[in-house]
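Hi all, posting the design record for the shared folder.

TITLE: backbone redesign
STEP: 1 of 1
STRUCTURE INPUT:
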């Protein structure tokens, strides 16, 4: 069935970890830790490529980028977003522990990805991942609310993992 739909199955470890991320990214937690505990209208400066929205995924799917490559891109962009948020937090900030837990889940997901050959990802995805990790010397920057970064992380995760991992939105 997944072959007919064009979806490539995710590894069991990926599914378990993304399910844990889904739980950690519940609306109430994002609202409390990424909005209420920050000053009103607080923004984080990120590279343009560090904002991954569902529309970006749809555009890449239309260019026939594989689901595996899209999940690889989501992982790199989302883990970088968590790092960007952590960079602005002092250790005593109420959101520090929450972002640390998110970072640990992404680290574990990175271990899952290290088991696979990622040289097979499409060039457009490989180029985007390089830009995300380049430090942004050539990239444009934009200001984004911390909650919006995690909102996008969750929305894209739903798009990429819900069907292959068979977990719902609840």
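Okay, here is what came back for every position:
SEQUENCE:
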């Amino acid at each position: 069935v997944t072959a007919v739909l064009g979806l490539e199955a995710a590894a069991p470890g990926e599914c378990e970890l993304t399910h844990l991320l889904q739980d950690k990214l519940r609306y109430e937690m994002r609202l409390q830790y990424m909005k209420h505990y920050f000053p009103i209208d607080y923004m984080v400066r990120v590279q343009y490529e560090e904002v991954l929205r569902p529309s970006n995924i749809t555009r890449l799917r239309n260019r026939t980028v594989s689901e595996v490559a899209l999940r690889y891109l989501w992982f790199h962009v989302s883990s970088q977003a968590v790092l960007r948020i952590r960079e602005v937090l002092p250790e005593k900030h109420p959101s520090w522990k929450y972002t640390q837990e998110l970072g640990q889940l992404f680290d574990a997901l990175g271990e899952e990805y290290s088991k696979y050959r990622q040289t097979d990802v499409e060039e457009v995805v490989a180029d985007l991942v390089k830009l995300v990790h380049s430090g942004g010397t050539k990239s444009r920057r934009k200001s984004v609310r911390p909650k919006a970064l995690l909102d996008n992380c969750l929305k894209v995760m739903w798009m990429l993992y819900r069907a292959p991992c068979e977990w719902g939105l609840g």
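COMMENT: The chain has eight helices and two strands.
Let me know if anyone wants the other runs.
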